[in-house]
Amino acid sequence: MATHEMEDGCLSDSDVQSSVAEILENVAKPPIMISEHDGDLYGQLVLMLIPVEKNLDEEILFVTALKALSGAVSKINNIFHVSLLRNIFSIYIWDYGLDARNAILELITNLAIVPDKFLEDCLEMLVRNFQPPGRIRGYIYQPKFRSHKQNIYVQLHEALCYITSLVPIAPFKLKDILDRRMPKVHAEKMEMLPFVECMLGLESNEIGDYLRSTLLSMVVELLVDLDVSITWGHILKEDNNKDIFDIELEDFHNAEYNPVGVSGGKKDNNPDKLDCLMVIVCEHIKSSASDGHLVKVFDILMESFRKTVLNAYRSKFSQFIMFYACSLEPEICGLKFVIFLIDIFVSKAEDPISRMSAVCYVASYLSRARFISCSVVSSLIKRLVEWCYEYCHLQAGSERINHPKSHRLFYAGFQAVMYILCFRMQSLMDIQELKSVLFHLPLEAILCDPLDPLRICLPTIVKEFLCQAMAAHLLKKPLISSLQDNLLESEMSAAFGGVERLHMFFPFDPYLLKESDRFIKPNFESWSMVRKTYTNLNSEDELDDLDPLSADDGSEDGRDDDELAGGDDDEDELEYSINQMSITPRPVFEIAMADGRVLIPSRMPARIRPSVSPV
């Protein structure tokens, strides 16, 4: 380069900057007008910036050139310096040490603030660096690389914040780039995880003021896309030794399930990707809570839930980000979430599917969330029961009384009440004030209404509810006896449940992802931990008294239970017929099969099966 040497043989920064600026000016013309000497100098500058692995001397020259270019950005032309810009925007900062990274990002930020020239290219380069180059992606989550990864994320965030503080349109340009570069469901795990982790980091700084809603919504959408692509075969095949299977999914891993996702029969690792992403998202929510920003983040998550998750009937895990966020601030977020769901259910302005989904979420959430107090549970049960009672009153004499589909909201609402009480009845009975509230609910009036909810609601829920209600003396035994004919799983009940999802959607069923389970488990109520009102009944006679369908000999034709059971093949048919159930208790009453045979499953409820929502 044509420079003036200092007396000590070194060049000053200003000398190097002036030389680089001169080179840039001398080649900013049509090629035919560029001298061979100037072309060679420019070519050397371009070679210095080729994004390849460099030795120490080459990296020193690389840093020197970057710093000189940072001071000469006004001379860089997007027409005459294409090869130079191509090399600059192809750089991965992951390949360099701290000094080189600082020099790269200084150049990028200086280029970005040049009016109407390089903003989009600079933002694109920074977002591309959310992901490390392919050759090191497999190592960045190892402990020894953790600090290096975090340092790079911090530098990228600082550069983006600096640009957005000086260029007002930068956040809007950044939004489009993030949306375009966001990994899709079939991306490799190590493409997906660092991108999402780095992107969520933006939500915590100044950029979050502009893009918080967008960033969180994009992550929720990715979680749901992964979630709905996973069949139960993925989870059960990988995890059938986990305790929760022994307790709540007994025998479930012996069933046959499709072990692949929706990728045309090709096996994938979507469960693992979702699991790791749930860890990242939960860590981010936890960090937001520590920083005092949880309520702000929660409001956006709730909006995303409403748009993306609520009616995603195949979702099995993504909804648990709401569960976890609520557990961190139960008195604010926990209460806000369930009131939000109740309001959707009772609102006539909402569509029926959203209302049914909302009340299913209410039932599952209040049953499973340990952090929701008994007093809150009691008040919300009261609100649901009052809604059901008013509905019965309004429908009195209606011509649609024998058409269950016309009353699907009522059945979903009352089934939610019974489901919650299956989990919470004993804890409510332990508090005298709440016990009094429970005994004053018009449950018997609803049960005896011509709408006849016991004929339509899921029989396993009905049976468990009645057993506990009888043990608690919440319902009168003569009433139970008068209702027994309605407890068989009628064709109407099965058809209604199949069409209207009443049998199958309990979204906070046991959480089966391995790594992220640690965020959910401490606040999750599994069926095995529930105190039932009949737990203290010891004698067989007392237990028999709770069975509203008990008969003298347990059969109609004198055959014993083994004959009625029909063998292993019949049990398989029964499993198939109820494989979309979500509630823990299995039927303890007789079920009529299509061919006239009758099956009697095990006597006491013991298992919970995961929700399998309809397609």
UniProtKB/TrEMBL annotation:
Superkingdom assignment: Eukaryota
Region annotated Disordered, chain positions: 541-573
SUPFAM superfamilies in alphabetical order: ARM repeat
InterPro entries recorded: ARM-type_fold, RNA_pol_I_trans_ini_fac_RRN3
Listed Acidic residues bias regions: 553-573
Family listed: Belongs to the RRN3 family.
Name by which UniProt lists this protein: RNA polymerase I-specific transcription initiation factor RRN3
Organism: Platanthera guangdongensis
